Amino acid sequence: PGCIHGIPRAPPDKILGLTEQFNKDKNPKKTNLTVGIYKDNWGQVTTFQSVARAQMILDQSIELNTDLSYLPIKGCPDFQLNVLKFLYRESCPEGAESLDQGRISFVQTLSGTGALAVTSKFLSLFMSRSVWIPKPSWPNHANVFQNNGFDDILYYSYYKNGTLDVDGWLDDLERGAKSRDGPPQCIVLHACCHNPTGIDPSREQWRRILDKIHELNIIPIIDMAYQGLDTGDLYKDAYLLRMSLDKKRYNWNNGLFLCQSFAKNMGLYGERVGSLSVVTPVRHNSKEIKRNVDSQLKKIVRGMYSSPPGYGSRVANVVLSTPHLRDLWHKDVKNVANRLHSVKAKMAERLEWDSLKDQSRQHGMFLYTGLDMRSVETLREKYSIYLVQDGRLSLSGLNDSNVDYVCDALQSVHR
Ligand code: PLP
């Protein structure tokens, strides 16, 4: 604490700061490959067909869309019902039992970031102030946990020479756990399409990782921001949740936290639609634990932003609960994933890069180019092509009209 004159300048956001710079760039060939927003082959951020139709239904319904009053603190009850069904029955039937037993606590959140914020606040108040994050990770992870009471941000090895460093990862957890007593630690796990590397563990590797986390009594926080954008199949992509809720193998004593977002897989970015669900453990007093967790989550939300916004969750709710729109949504997601794959294939044709040779290695919206900071700067300064500083490139910013320009520029800075 001090006076206003002593406030230091915070650094600009590593990703959104670049878009501000991009907007000022006068080069007609400028290309923004920074933010993880899906654009179509014409460079447009289009509304998913399923979402547009849900919006039309809402527009025409006085009953559904004229209520501008507050939502309840934990969100719209219908949204809760449909999201829980989508997550814990359809995507992950292994979760149905927890749902039937009333062991899943739920809050509608301000998208995935809001879910992580509520999670970290809850954990730091009651359970842990120490979290493992992959190195590298989405830069906002550390920021969110720090902002919400975590004083110990630890990084586990993730990436080495273009592949996953699973041994380093397990060693880090093991060593970190041995060197301390006290409250449990938490760990952030990217459910699929790891941001920024696009490299995900195989099923066998996940099994080893989950076994280790379970053995060390670390609290899992699954961050599922890209469900569907890996294989194009929303259900398939929830494999980490399914593996984690295999009750023959794991009983998460301190619960399992799922932070889920509809930003990317429904294209609802700015509407801020997502959820936090906490699968509480099987105990003789499970119901009481769940009710207590519910009550504290509610108190946190009330103090943080009071209640979530309404419109986006109504749209998502119509998509999830109207069978033909739900089918259309699955097709929309498939189309997005197909386009991302075809952009990657086009780049592989043009560039003889190791990172592009085996495309099955890189999952999701991003290509981790491996370019160093100097090359990324050259791309920006000489060609007005904007990548994130760590060399991450957002694939959907590429299309038929700019792919040649971008590939030529990438080749020229590649060493
Ligand atoms: N987690 C990861 C790994 C992400 O990449 C993102 C978005 O870029 C999010 C969470 C949260 O996004 P949102 O708050 O828009 O749902």
The major beta sheet can be summarized as: 7 strands, mixed
Strand coverage percent: 5-15%
Percentage of residues assigned to helices: 40-55%
Q: In terms of per-residue confidence, which ranges show pLDDT below 50 for 5 or more consecutive residues?
A: none
Number of helices: 16
Bound molecules: pyridoxal-5'-phosphate
Order of helices and strands: HEHHHHEHEHEEEHEHEHEEHHHHEHEEH
* Strand arrangement in the largest pleated sheet: 2-10-9-8-7-3-4
Terminal CA distance reads: 48 Å
Number of strands: 13
Question: Which of globular, elongated, flat, extended, rod-shaped describes the shape?
Answer: globular
Please tell me how large the radius of gyration is: 21 Å
Helix/strand-derived class? Answer: alpha/beta
Mean pLDDT: 93
Enzyme class: transferase
Catalytic activity: L-aspartate + 2-oxoglutarate = oxaloacetate + L-glutamate
Keywords: Aminotransferase, Pyridoxal phosphate, Transferase
EC number: 2.6.1.1
Structural notes for this entry:
This protein is of the alpha/beta class and 415 residues long. Helices cover 44% and strands 13% of the residues. It contains 16 helices and 13 strands. Strands 2-10-9-8-7-3-4 form a 7-stranded mixed β-sheet, sandwiched between helices. The protein has a two-stranded parallel ribbon with strand order 1-12. Strands 5-6 form a two-stranded antiparallel sheet. Helix 2 packs across helix 12. It is globular. The model has no long low-confidence stretch (mean pLDDT 93). Bound molecules: pyridoxal-5'-phosphate. Pyridoxal-5'-phosphate binds next to helix 6. InterPro entries: Aminotransferase_I/II_large, Asp_trans, NHTrfase_class1_PyrdxlP-BS, PyrdxlP-dep_Trfase, PyrdxlP-dep_Trfase_major, PyrdxlP-dep_Trfase_small. Its EC number is 2.6.1.1. It catalyses: L-aspartate + 2-oxoglutarate = oxaloacetate + L-glutamate. Belongs to the class-I pyridoxal-phosphate-dependent aminotransferase family. One of its GO terms (biological process) is L-aspartate catabolic process.
